[in-house]
Design brief:
With 344 residues, the protein is α/β, with parallel strands linked by helices. It contains 4 helices and 11 strands. The strands form 2 sheets. It has a 7-stranded parallel sheet, sandwiched between helices. β2 and β3 form a beta hairpin. α3 runs parallel beside α4. The longest helix is centred in the first third of the chain and has 17 residues. It starts with 21 loop residues before the first helix and ends in a 14-residue tail after the last strand.
Length: 344
Amino acid sequence: IVFVLCLQWSEVKAQTKQPISVEEYTKKQNKAIERLLKEGYPRLIKQKNGEDAELVGELESGKPMYITTHNNVNVVNALDANLYDNPFDGFSIDGTDINIAMIDNLFPRRTHELFRLPNVPITSRITNRFNAFDIDDAIFSSTNIGSHPTHIAGTIMGNRVVGSTSSSPDNLLVRGVAIKSTLDAYHWKDHFLKTRYIAEANTTNILNKSFGVILQNEPATFGRYNDLAFIADDVMCKYPTFQIVKSVGNERIAVNGIVTHDQQTILGGYDLLESEGIAKNVLVVGAVNLNCKSQTSPCQPPFITENIGTSFSSYGPTDDGRIKPDVVTHGYQVKSSTTIGSVN
């Protein structure tokens, strides 16, 4: 069970902007989408780094706001995830009886072999571990399967299978964290509304969001408490056992050698937080590289002599001085499930 220390908007004394309801925010952003589409901005874009992005409204400046996936889907599992399903102190945290929700740009490929229950032979029937697929039936279809959500689902609950195939020669190297858990998957359209819906439904205590707003070169907006941060904090204050987990983003490095934010050079990669990553109650996760020994024997603590930093994972802090990300974990060259059935 997750217990949240609820910190509210009003606790930031310097904050003068009035809170906004999720209904008001939705109405405002849907109007902005209509305006921006008429102005010629595309609804969907493919970035130079290969990540997908979608128009979801406007920034405070009035510029288009795009959200993008936070991951590299063509990247070895050094999470030592096998440690989590071995009981210690009377507890086992392998995901038994735990249901997790995720929101992403598309939906996971439910029939992937990694989504079997533990120790099910590869020749056996798939055991479906997905409970629900969105509240909008019009969004979900077999054509809306994506590599990014399939990859993230594998990292969350994927389980190595017994035996190997030509499509999965490295299956024994792959294991998610909560290998016996189940998953609900949602599309990121109106994700702020769906966040509240998931909390109210009370079928899970954990919601994963591995995406964020594309940052434009507007330094004043980075790290500043915003509407999305407030909405996330408000939901978690009302539902104190509900925890949102969000990726911090990959904005610290220039893309293809092109500097896109002053923070990448002037501030050395600091002050790059966006959207819900600025919230007080959201667990924001950064990436480190634990492949410093080998694929099958990753580096172990202490890391005093190990260089485990990544060049891309974003840094905080928030404008009001809070340290973000809250935690870091392995996020470099993570081997997981893909849409074509192989481990990648």
